[in-house]
Design goal:
The protein is α+β, with helices and mostly antiparallel strands. The chain is built from 9 helices and 16 strands. Strands 4, 5, 6, 7, 8, 9, 10 and 11 form an 8-stranded mixed β-sheet that branches.
C-alpha cells in the first residue's frame, strides 16, 4: 500500500472522519469531496485501484480507502459513522455532543490546535476550536449570545486587533473548508463544555479595553449555529432585484431540510450562500444605508466601504423567531444596543415592528 494511502487511512480512523460534518446524511460523493478538500495532498487521482488489483475497479485508490474506513468505523460501537440505507447514504453524528464536558488536553492531543489559545485552528485537520469564558474579561474579551447569534471577540490582548492568524481563520473558515466548534471554559481545570458548531456570518469593530485597560479597536464576530439551509444559483446576490432577493431569502428560510437547499439551473457563475447570508443581504438592501430604528445614516462604513448596520431579528431567535426576511431589519449599533440592553428595549422593539409593517412593501 502506498504511504499516502496508509497515512490517509490512519488520519481518518484516528479522527473518526472529523472532516465530514455531523448532523446530516451524506452521499459517497459528498464524503469524497469533504476528504479531498481537507487532505488534498493525500488524495491522488493518478493512482488507480487497477494499478494494484485486478477486480476491474478503476476508481482512484484513495476513494477505495475511504470506503474501507467508513465500513470499519460503522462496525464499531458508539461510532459517529453508520450506513443510512442501501442507496449510498451515510449518517455522520456530530463530532461533539451538546452540553457534554470534555478535557481540553484530550481534544488537542487528538485533533491538534494550541491548548492555551482562545482561537485554536488545527494544523492537520479542518477544525477550528473556539473557547469562551469569564476569564477572558480581564483581557478585554466580551462574548455573549444575542438571541441565537453568538458574538465572539477576536484574539489580540494589546492594541487594535488585526484580521490575521486566528481572526482571519474564523472569517475564512467556510472558504477554507473548516468547521468552527465552540466550547465554554468554566474554570474547571481543563474541563470545557461543548456549546455547538457555528458558522461565521459577519463581524464588526467595537472599542473595548485591552489587557492593560487601554481602549482599542476590537473585532467582534457574529456566529450562528451551523447547518442553515443554503441557496445555490448563477451569479451573486448583488445581481438580484429587491423582489428576487426577497424570494431567494424566503426560499432558503422555508426549505424543507438544511441538507436540500435551493438550486437553480444554469452553467454560469454558481454561488452558494447560507440562509443567513441571503436574509442579511435583504435587510441591508431594504435599509439602503439608513438605520431603520432612528432613520439616520449609518454612523460609519465597514472595511469594504459599505454603510455599517447590524441585522436585528424583530421576533428574537431565542424566542423562536425565524431567520426570515420578514423578521429582520438593519439598524445602527446604538439602536441595536438599545433594543437588547436598554431599559425601554421591549417597547422600542414593538415600535420597530410597527414601523416595519407600515413602510415595508408586501411581497
Amino acid at each position: 500500500m502506498r504511504d499516502d494511502i496508509r497515512e490517509l487511512q490512519e488520519v481518518l480512523k484516528s479522527t473518526g472522519m472529523a472532516c465530514v460534518p455531523g448532523g446530516k446524511r451524506s452521499t459517497a460523493a459528498e464524503v469524497y469531496e469533504f476528504v479531498s478538500r481537507s487532505y488534498p495532498e493525500l488524495c491522488d487521482d493518478g493512482h488507480r485501484c487497477s494499478d494494484t488489483c485486478k477486480d476491474g475497479n478503476d476508481q482512484p485508490e484513495w476513494k477505495h480507502a475511504i470506503r474501507r474506513i467508513q465500513q470499519q468505523l460503522a462496525r464499531k460501537p458508539e461510532s459517529r459513522v453508520s450506513r443510512h440505507d442501501e442507496h449510498g447514504y451515510w449518517n455522520y453524528e456530530p463530532l461533539f455532543e451538546l452540553g457534554q464536558r470534555y478535557d481540553r488536553r484530550e481534544i488537542h492531543d487528538r485533533f491538534g490546535g494550541a491548548r492555551y489559545r482562545g482561537i485554536a485552528p488545527s494544523a492537520d485537520h479542518p477544525l477550528i476550536f473556539l473557547v469562551t469564558g469569564e476569564s477572558g474579561t480581564e483581557h478585554g474579551y466580551e462574548d455573549e449570545f444575542r438571541g441565537e447569534t453568538f458574538v465572539y471577540t477576536g484574539e489580540g490582548r494589546e492594541g487594535d486587533m488585526e484580521m490575521m492568524r486566528g481572526n482571519r481563520a474564523i472569517r475564512d473558515h467556510r472558504k477554507d473548508g473548516r468547521q468552527l466548534h465552540l466550547f465554554e471554559d468554566r474554570n474547571e481545570a481543563w474541563q470545557v463544555t461543548y456549546v455547538g458548531q457555528f458558522e461565521y456570518v459577519d463581524h464588526f469593530r467595537q472599542r473595548l479595553p485591552d489587557t492593560n485597560g487601554e481602549i482599542r479597536e476590537a473585532i467582534r464576530f457574529e456566529l450562528e449555529p451551523a447547518g442553515g439551509s443554503t441557496i445555490e444559483f448563477d451569479g451573486t446576490l448583488d445581481d438580484l432585484t429587491e423582489q428576487e432577493l426577497y424570494e431567494r431569502a424566503e426560499q432558503a428560510a422555508t426549505a424543507v431540510s438544511p441538507e436540500e437547499g435551493i438550486t437553480s439551473s444554469g452553467t454560469s457563475r454558481r454561488t452558494t450562500y447560507t440562509r443567513s447570508d441571503a436574509v442579511r443581504r435583504f435587510a441591508h438592501r431594504m435599509a439602503d444605508g439608513m438605520c431603520q430604528g432612528c432613520d439616520r445614516e449609518a454612523p460609519f462604513v465597514d472595511e469594504n466601504g459599505d454603510p455599517y448596520l447590524e441585522v436585528h431579528h424583530l421576533d428574537r431567535r431565542s424566542d423562536g423567531g425565524a431567520d426570515h426576511p420578514d423578521n429582520v431589519i438593519a439598524i445602527c449599533p446604538n439602536c441595536h444596543r438599545r433594543v437588547h440592553h436598554g431599559q425601554d428595549g421591549d417597547q422600542f422593539n414593538r415600535e420597530l415592528i410597527e414601523q416595519v409593517k407600515q413602510r415595508r412593501p408586501s411581497h
